[in-house]
Amino acid sequence: MATLSVRKLRMEIQRLRLPVGVEGTYGCIRHPGASLAVPLLPDGRVVILRQYRFAVQRRILEFPAGTLEPGEPPQAAMERELQEEAGYRASRWDDLGLLLPCPGYSDEVIHLFMARELEPLPAPVQGDHDEDIEVLTLSPAELDRRLASGEEPLDGKTVTAWFRARQLLQLG
Predict the structure, then answer these.
(1) How many CB atoms lie within 10 A of CB 147?
(2) Which of 103, 106, 90 is nearest to 38 (CA)?
(3) Which of 18, 71, 105, 140 has a CA-to-CA distance to 8 between 20 and 30 Å?
(4) Which H or E run contains 164?
(5) 3-state secondary structure 92-161
(6) Given strand 34-39, what is the order of strands in its sheet?
(7) Which DSSP state fits 49?
(8) Which tens digits make up the pLDDT trace of 98-111?
(9) From the CB of residue 93, how many other CB atoms can be counted at a distance below 10 Å?
């Protein structure tokens, strides 16, 4: 097995026999896991970020999210990221399930949450030095319109989390 590690990711290349009996060389990006929250303000608006992503060389709309630190529970990671990236603290957390964003080449699992009863922090919390983030608030209708129009790129984890949050809000 060959490996290459970069930041928190590790690329493994190994020879495997699949359950159907086929043998081959396969690569997998090993990821420590992540958390994401759909932050909902008391007036119903959604907190979302416009963040620069180097891999696509542009800013995209996405919900606050972050990689788990070793041994860190998913909700604790999300509480930290919500403070660092968006400047809010939540009193209520709803579990929206798990997301496997790229199972064809990565073992990443993203834990999805809805964060409610938000309060803005009195002072900013220092996040990662390389993050380029603009915090926005949108009505659910405006977010739906942006999703439908394709006018601004959104990532898949944001689309999935918003779909699940809308289901929870409609059922709850």
Answers:
(1) 16
(2) 90
(3) 18
(4) helix 156-171
(5) EEEEEEEECCCCCCECCCEEEEEEEEEEECCCCCCCCCCCCEEEEEECHHHHHHHHHHCCCCECHHHHHH
(6) 65-67, 34-39, 110-120, 88-99
(7) E
(8) 999 999 999 999 99
(9) 16
Q: How far is CA 8 from CA 58, 70, 152, 172, in A?
A: 22, 10, 28, 37
**Residues 100-144 pLDDT 10s:** 999 999 999 999 999 999 999 987 666 566 778 999 999 999 999
Instruction: Judge contact between 80 and 64, C-beta under 8 A.
Output: no
- Go through the domains of the chain in sequence order and give each one's CATH number: 1-30 (no CATH), 32-171 (3.90.79.10)
Give the pLDDT score at 115. Answer: 98
For residue 129, the cross-strand partners are: none
Please give the Cα distance from 119 to 94 (Å, whole number): 16
Contacting residues for 161 by C-beta, under 8 A, at least 6 apart: 36, 37, 38, 63, 96, 99, 112
**Whole-structure pTM value:** 0.90
Q: Cα–Cα distance between 64 and 82 in angstroms, integer?
A: 6
